[in-house]
Amino acid sequence: NAGVTQTPKFRILKIGQSMTLQCTQDMNHNYMYWYRQDPGMGLKLIYYSVGAGITDKGEVPNGYNVSRSTTEDFPLRLELAAPSQTSVYFCASSYENELFFGEGSRLTVL
Amino acid sequence: AQKVTQAQTEISVVEKEDVTLDCVYETRDTTYYLFWYKQPPSGELVFLIRRNSFDEQNEISGRYSWNFQKSTSSFNFTITASQVVDSAVYFCALSEAMRGAQKLVFGQGTRLTINP
What distance in Å separates the CA atoms of residue B59 and residue B38, rounded to the nearest whole number? Predict the structure, then answer.
């Protein structure tokens, strides 16, 4: 039982490049989330999903897209990377009010 | 809108001292959940506790204890006899309980340093 798995763990992007952060959970949870954590700050919700095919915006969705074609996967897409998107990204899933976080993906945009 | 305030940005104490991390929250919901997470230098988030708004009992887990007071909208966290391994950033978080999605609002975190 791997829990929530995020890839890659580290990535450096150039301004304007695109990339996808992958998130997979093997707990069959319906609810999944993407958060970002800027240096010295708490986490902020980017997008979340209540089940396959259903996604919704969180507090800071601009510059990101998500999809949820299966229960297991919840990828986060950055279309035109900007320095403001330099952050640590955490994926999570939840069941009965308990959240399970991945280990985080550190993204730097230069 | 929901908000969580952790006024203490950094705390530094000597090992074996007791230390309290403050958390004040704002919400208009009558049903909500409060959380504490630990983020050690390695960066992962470690779940410590979840408390629902109807349960105001204080909780103790080993050297950790939590004091939930709805009257002051506070959910403070105390470490007794601190140890160097307690050094980390601690986050308080709040979520509304709506349709099962746990959309957490985090405080800015308190960086706790325990000196030997």
Answer: 17
